[in-house]
Specification:
4-stranded parallel beta sheet, 12 helices, Rossmann fold, 2 domains, binds D-glutamic acid
Length: 291
């Protein structure tokens, strides 16, 4: 027979489970953020995840910061309000660069971007204190990486010099699945020339799509420059934030997380291209309606 104590404990436990079972909410302008989703699924396989790719309004990179900020607010608010997300990951460098602090003050759940984790990884990697970041026009124009790298350098008490360069065209090559060959190599040589001259030893791929160009970028930069992808660093920050806020889904329960994917644009195209970015977990996608 259950005592009052057992019943009370059972209720508390199921309330606790309901709390931690809430999904992590993640969004990007499209497919690129799936590189971050991959890293989060690999590190936290028992967490539930909802991902929205705003493919109807993609790309964010060349858009005015104000537009990107209002898209980000709409997506994050929907993840919390419609999907009961317990934590938000802004898996888009452009959106994180212009909207992170606003989202953090607006929402009642922790909000994590990709910029700070990437900047910290960059600063921790360099040996000669000369680093570079590449991103979309919007990301580089925002100055978010200058701020984040300066913050990470202060934490480490080191004096780091940063060169930040926009790489328009890279995203389009990835979207066309043209991640090698003469055309993309020529563009990389042209865009990365100022960085090659700057004698850096670490380069942050500050755009969700760029990890797919790692081979080309790595060849152009040469073997002495370490390429940093912010996806893994972001996943570690997500793990720590879940633990700190007592909202991590316990590994001991042995339950695999569920993963749901939404797109504001063509759902079929999203699941086909998305599967290539993420892997077999992306079996199908559903439609997310822009308000
Ligand atoms: N997701 C964007 C980023 O990381 C790249 C694609 C776009 O321009 O929307 O900056």
């Amino acid at each position: 027979m259950l005592t009052d104590f057992d019943v009370g404990e059972g209720v508390a436990l199921s309330k606790m489970n309901a709390q931690v079972d809430r999904p992590i909410g993640m969004f990007d302008s499209g497919f690129g953020g799936l590189t971050v989703a991959r890293a989060v699924i690999d590190l936290l396989p028992n967490e539930n995840l909802i991902y929205i790719g705003d493919t109807a309004r993609y790309p964010y990179g060349p858009k005015p910061a104000g537009d990107v900020r209002s898209f980000a607010i709409e997506l994050a608010t929907s993840l919390v309000g419609d999907f009961n997300a317990k934590l938000i990951v802004v898996a888009c460098n452009t959106a994180a660069s212009v909207a992170l602090s606003e989202l953090q003050s607006l929402l009642s759940v922790p909000v994590i971007g990709v910029v700070e984790p990437g900047a910290r990884a960059l600063v921790n990697t360099t040996k000669n204190n000369r680093v570079a970041v590449i991103g979309t026009i919007g990301t580089i124009a925002s100055g978010a990486y200058e701020k984040a790298v300066a913050g990470a350098s202060r934490e480490k008490s080191s004096d780091i010099s940063l060169i930040a360069t926009a790489c328009p065209g890279f995203v389009e090559f990835v979207e066309r699945d043209e991640t090698s060959g003469e055309a993309v190599t020529q563009l990389a040589e042209k865009l990365l020339a100022p960085i090659r001259k700057a004698d850096v030893d670490a380069l942050l791929l500050g755009c969700t799509h760029y990890p797919y160009l790692s081979q080309v970028i790595g060849r152009v930069m040469g073997p002495d420059v370490k390429l940093i992808n912010s996806a893994d660093a972001t996943a570690s920050v997500v793990r720590d934030a879940l633990a700190k806020n007592n909202i991590a889904r316990s590994v001991e329960r042995g339950v695999q997380g569920s993963h749901e994917f939404y797109s504001s644009g063509d759902v079929r195209q999203f699941s086909e291209l998305g599967r290539r970015f993420l892997g077999p977990e992306l079996m199908s996608a559903k439609h997310w309606q822009i308000k």
